[in-house]
Amino acid sequence: AQSVTQLDSQVPVFEEAPVELRCNYSSSVSVYLFWYVQYPNQGLQLLLKYLSGSTLVKGINGFEAEFNKSQTSFHLRKPSVHISDTAEYFCAVRGNRGSTLGRLYFGRGTQLTVWP
Amino acid sequence: NAGVTQTPKFQVLKTGQSMTLQCAQDMNHNSMYWYRQDPGMGLRLIYYSASEGTTDKGEVPNGYNVSRLNKREFSLRLESAAPSQTSVYFCASSGKGRADTQYFGPGTRLTVL
């Protein structure tokens, strides 16, 4: 089975500052990794995903994440945030072999609040 | 192309009442999912359907039933609602590959009094 830990439940930051949202995972098999964003009163939308290859993954809205296998981490970063980035962010992991269910495991979420 | 649609958007029930949450997707996806979202808990999988005619329990299936009516539609039924089922419910769909993205509906906010 897999599990995900998002280390910060809330991250406040000022507009145009850089931000990092931290995610660690545990798994007995190799994994696919995902970051989703949820704007208020909406469903989840994919930001980016790591499947294989380059460990630096670029997503929508200027976000990027780096897969670190040795540290089992997949931290999300943005060099300069906007007020419109205020949302909840979810890290998720899915085993790429083994269980026939192949379910997606979500972290508990990080609320990013960008202040003017 | 509407993606994943859910009805209703909001619902208030009394304890013991029953209801069915509807979900439909128009992306020709094989797999469909039902999650619930509670504050500080992230998303937890209730039930999953890998393909038409199959369903599997997820992490929190108790108190729920599902029906994969056809490839497009996947419904979630609460037979006897309890206050612990107050939550936001999301339906999602994806292709059958493990690398495939899950696409989410807008959610149903359910309150059980």
Helix content of chain B: under 10%
- The average pLDDT of chain B is 93
| Poorly predicted runs of 5 or more residues of chain A | none
Largest interface: A-B, 25 and 23 residues
Secondary-structure-based class of chain A equals mainly beta
How far apart the termini of chain A lie comes to: 41 Å
Structural category of chain B: mainly beta
Write down the Rg of chain A.
14 Å
- The ordered H/E elements of chain A are EEEEEEEEEEEE
Largest sheet of chain B: 7 strands, mixed
Q: Topology as H/E string of chain B?
A: EEEEEEEEEEE
Gyration radius of chain B, rounded: 13 Å
Question: Could you walk me through the main structural features you see in this protein, from its secondary elements to its overall organization?
Answer:
- The complex is a heterodimer of chains A (about 120) and B (about 110).
- Chain A is about 0% helix and about 55% strand.
- Chain A is an all-beta fold and about 120 residues long.
- Chain A is globular, with a radius of gyration of 14 Å.
- Chain A contains no helices and twelve strands.
- Chain B has about 110 residues and is mainly β.
- Helix content of chain B is about 0%, strand content about 50%.
- In chain B, strands 2, 4, 5, 6, 9, 10 and 11 form a seven-stranded mixed β-sheet that branches. Chain B has a four-stranded antiparallel β-sheet with strand order 1-3-8-7, with no helix packed on it.
- The mean pLDDT of chain B is about 95.
- The chains are: A mainly beta (about 120), B mainly beta (about 110).
- Chains A and B meet through strand 5, strand 6 and strand 10 of A and strand 5 and strand 10 of B.
